[in-house]
Structure formats: C-alpha cells, structure tokens
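Still learning folds. Look over my entry:

…
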Amino acid sequence: MRRAGEGTRRWQSHRHRVTFDLMDTLNPDISQPVSPETEAERRRRLAREAEGIAEARADVAAGRIVDEAEVDAWIDSIGTDHELPVPYAGR
C-alpha cells in the first residue's frame, strides 16, 4: 500500500491539492464560500461533465492520448529557461 505523499509528482503534492480544493469552493472576489447551486444548475453541470467524460473516453478509445512522461517533462519545464511546448495528442 502506498503511503500519503509516496509516488506523487511535485504538482500532485498535498499543498497543491489543498489549493485546488479551495479554488473550487471560494468566490474569488470575496474569498467566501460560493452559495450552493440550484437543482437546475446541478443538472446542467452534471450534463456538461457527462459530455466531457464521454468525449475523453472517445479520445482514449481512438488512441488520442498523451504519454504521462511527456506531460511530466512539460510540467517540470514550466518556468525554466527551456520550457517545452504543451504536449498534444495527434488528432
């Protein structure tokens, strides 16, 4: 079994996960929790998410994926003197 923090990449660290969690729940203008979504908003969000998941599954099935090592190398190059271009899957 993997312990917390083992095998995670720099961009997957606990500190970043907490930051991303906060970004999802705070109103950026006033740094207060965003009011709960209405049922209609929830249905629209879930429909958009389902469409995105279906599109991602179709891309994977068609072989349109980016190798994890390419993504990691790109992420590690951000902010350096030798930034790599964003890796894209062939479409």
About this structure: The radius of gyration is 18 Å. The chain has one domain: 10-77. Residues 10-77 form one domain.
